Amino acid sequence: MGNPMPPERVKPNDEELLVLAMAGDRAAFSDLVRHHQDEVYTLAVRLVADRELAEDISQEAFVRAWRALPNFRRDAKFSTWMHRITVNVAWTQRRKQRRHRADPIDESFTEPVAESISPERAAESAAIQGSLRDALNNLPRPTRTVVVLKDVYGWTHGEIAERLEITIAAAKVRLHRGRKQLRNQLWAEMEEDV
Amino acid sequence: MKTSCRVVRSIAPSTDVAGLAKVLSNHVGSCLSCQAELARYGKLRRQLASLAEVTVQAPEPLAAEVAAAVASNGNPAETEAGLAHPVRVAAAAGAVVAAAAGAAAVAAWRHSRIVTS
Ligand SMILES: [Zn+2]
Predict the structure, then answer these.
(1) Distance of alpha carbon B70 from alpha carbon B11, whole angstroms
(2) Among the partner residues B49, B63, B85, nearest to A151 by beta-carbon distance
(3) Considering only CA atoms, which of A92, A85, A69, A12 is closest in space to residue B70?
(4) Residue A49: closest CA among chain B residues belongs to which residue?
(5) CA distance A75 to chain B (A)
(6) Mean pLDDT score of chain B, rounded to an integer?
(7) Minimum CA–CA partner of A193 in chain B
(8) DSSP state of A70
(9) Are B72 and B93 spatial neighbours (Cβ–Cβ below 8 Å)?
(10) Fewer CB within 10 Å of terminal CB in chain A, N or C?
(11) For the segment A145-164, what is each residue's pLDDT rounded down to a tens digit?
(12) pLDDT in tens, A11-65
């Protein structure tokens, strides 16, 4: 028999980290941040289409999460909870900003493609997602927010309405309008006058 | 454009073939233009859903900035304050700390971690 395998170093999972963080363990919370920072930042970028602003929103979302941890009832996954907080922060920030200027659109922003998909599919996805991203960025932020939450993240109209403090009917109207605007941008040349 | 085509175009963003009323689905069955329009929306929805597979990498300093902000934030588990604090002020303070102190702030956070654990 060979040498016994050294015991594998067990990384704490999110559930353990969450328990520790809820008890005030900053290191555990820091690990949670590292585990979830990409998804939180991705959501923020999709909502505001501006990398610097998305970084600020991500940071505020995590700080808000840290302070709210004692109130976290664990009836949802940590990632789901973080998404909700991120949407709240982005939405609140929009209210503060909207009187000053239109949505900033980060023209230089290029969304990297996930490494988990094949190279062929990645190239195809990059092309499709490039034009889709541009079209999304052209939507007014209230419309884009609903489209992103419903069609990218699969939220229900009820969840969207609750989080954005709008009616379900308003969420449906924005989704309808947003999809129509995307369709018109992506297939403009195919507009027919039959 | 026929009236039925106009109706299909007006509802296409929020429906698919299965959701169409009988009279409209009969029309779509024989109208290539409407089939194409519904197919565009189907494709659009699939493309949007595919964005969920794509993750954008967070900027390098984000985790350290959060750690610095959290370090200056007290321990909510002890204060039981939760969301009662004005979040924006604390987050802004955290950002300032992170920007100004950088690595030193992270070191302070690590020290506080040792003290509190
Ligand atoms: Zn037709």
Answers:
(1) 48
(2) B49
(3) A69
(4) B56
(5) 17
(6) 74
(7) B1
(8) G
(9) yes
(10) N
(11) 999 999 999 999 999 999 99
(12) 678 889 999 999 999 999 999 999 999 999 999 999 999 999 999 999 999 999 9
- Which residue's entry shows tokens 């353990």? A16
Q: Identify the H or E element spanning A82.
A: helix A78-97
For residues A60 and A56, what is the distance between their CA atoms, to the nearest angstrom?
6
**Contacts of residue A8, Cβ cutoff 8 Å, sequence gap at least 6:** none
* CA distances in angstroms from B62 to A192, B16, B66, listed in the order given: 47, 41, 6
The neighbour count for residue A86, using CB atoms within 10 Å, is 26
Is residue A190 over pLDDT 70?
no
| Domains of chain A by start residue, with CATH | 12-98 (1.10.1740.10), 118-194 (1.10.10.10)
Query: Pick from A131, A177, A126: which is nearest to A150 by CA?
Result: A177
Please say whether the dihedral angle defined by the alpha carbons of residues A84, A140, A169 and A131, taken in this order, is positive or negative: negative
Is the interface score ipTM higher than 0.95?
Answer: no
